[in-house]
Specification:
The chain is of the alpha/beta class. The protein is built from three helices and nine strands; from the N terminus they run βαβαβαββββββ. The chain has helices spanning 35-48, 64-73, 86-98; strands spanning 24-30, 52-57, 78-85, 106-112, 115-120, 126-130, 136-138, 145-153, 158-163. β5 and β6 (126-130) form a beta hairpin. The protein starts with 23 loop residues before the first strand and ends in a 7-residue tail after the last strand.
């Protein structure tokens, strides 16, 4: 199965610019490559004189609980700006959409797509791996060799993984 039949989004890799319709903003960036984009967004929001919550760290895992709380408290006009590696941006986006944000309220930029969260369909474990779609990686839960399939769950922030040689297993 190739890219003609895939649910893998085309991740923006350059800054689409600030959504100036926001009444307040949250800007999250992950890793050093995302910092310049986030700083640019922050300057633009400051020029608009709108409230902003800005956070920068190494991994989305560090801020997901706080993001969920802020999404729950968000009101009409709240905009979420995300920049960083695909695995982190996808995880933060999943928290936001589970909390009710719409795609139109989220701006994202992916700075690196080498790592993927891969959900094992056999043991329900999610593994972070440096692997391309269509390649094989080991599951950190059950140890099976998983094919990283051309399907990504935006809601669960992970690619589908299933045992590569399932047809041959007895």
């Amino acid at each position: 199965m190739g890219s003609a039949h895939t649910s893998v989004p085309r991740w923006p890799t350059s800054d689409p610019g600030l959504d100036r319709t926001g009444r307040s903003y949250a800007i999250l960036s992950f890793g050093p490559d995302a910092r310049p984009t986030a700083e640019g967004w922050h300057r633009q929001v400051a020029d608009l004189d709108r409230p902003v919550w800005a956070w920068h760290g190494d991994s989305a895992d560090e801020v997901l609980a706080e993001l969920a709380e802020r999404v729950e408290a968000a009101r009409v006009g709240w905009r979420l700006m995300l920049a960083g590696p695909q695995a982190d941006v996808l995880a933060a986006r999943a928290v936001a959409t589970r909390g009710g944000l719409l795609d139109a309220e989220i701006t994202l930029v992916v700075t690196d797509d080498r790592h993927r969260r891969v959900w094992c369909s056999h043991c329900d474990t999610t593994t972070l791996a440096e692997v391309a779609t269509g390649d094989v990686t080991g599951c950190s839960g059950c140890g099976r060799s998983l094919l990283v399939y051309h399907h990504v769950s935006r809601r669960n922030a992970a690619y589908l993984g299933f045992m590569v040689d399932a047809e041959e297993a007895v």
